[in-house]
Design goal:
The chain has 164 residues and is of the alpha/beta class. The chain has five helices and four strands, in the order H-E-H-E-H-E-H-E-H. Helix content is 29%, strand content 12%. The chain has a four-stranded parallel sheet with strand order 1-4-2-3. Strand 2, helix 3 and strand 3 form a beta-alpha-beta unit. It is elongated. Keywords: Ribonucleoprotein, Ribosomal protein, RNA-binding, rRNA-binding.
Length: 164
């Protein structure tokens, strides 16, 4: 629009008598140096959702995932240095096959740098902290692995019915 461009406040020439087209501004989108008609604008695609509704959705998703959920002891003490091999060994002990498109969600209580670095290079493994879990990831995962510290918080936050 014209408002996006500076200048152009004065009428370039009079309305009548010149034989030229009517012009109200030298910054019209039709002119060089003018604004852009229907140009790109920043847009947020965020959807508003009520807090209680979101909590209920996550609780329901966790309930539906009970059959494919494993609870393991906290991972942070085991990863004193980042090693993808150690994470893969842990997943193999839990009979998780990340090679054949078997998406796995690993929920931890808080972000631990070495755990994150050990997990990020494994395909189809999604590492989430409790403040960042969402319904889509829970429903999409074929297996859900929850750290015991995270499970305690889940029980408190989403009720006893959301945990085994």
């Amino acid at each position: 629009p014209r408002s996006a461009v500076g200048g152009g406040a004065q009428k370039p020439y009079q309305q009548k008598g010149t034989g030229r087209a009517r012009r109200g501004s030298s910054r019209s989108p039709l002119l060089v140096g003018g604004g852009v008609s229907f140009g790109p604008k920043p847009k947020s695609y965020r959807l508003k959702m009520n807090k209680k509704e979101k909590r209920l959705a996550i609780s329901t998703a966790l309930m539906s995932a009970l059959g494919r959920m494993n609870v393991v002891e906290d991972l942070d003490p085991h990863f004193d240095m980042p090693r993808t091999q150690d994470m893969r060994a842990l997943l193999e002990r839990l009979s998780v096959d990340t090679k054949n498109d078997e998406s796995t969600l690993l929920i931890t209580k808080a972000r631990h740098e070495n755990t994150y670095l050990s997990a990020r290079n494994i395909p189809y493994l999604n590492l989430r902290t409790l403040d960042n879990i969402n319904v889509r990831d829970i429903l999409k995962a074929k297996k859900v692995i929850v750290a015991s510290g995270a499970m305690d918080v889940i029980k408190g936050r989403y009720g006893e019915e959301a945990s085994a």
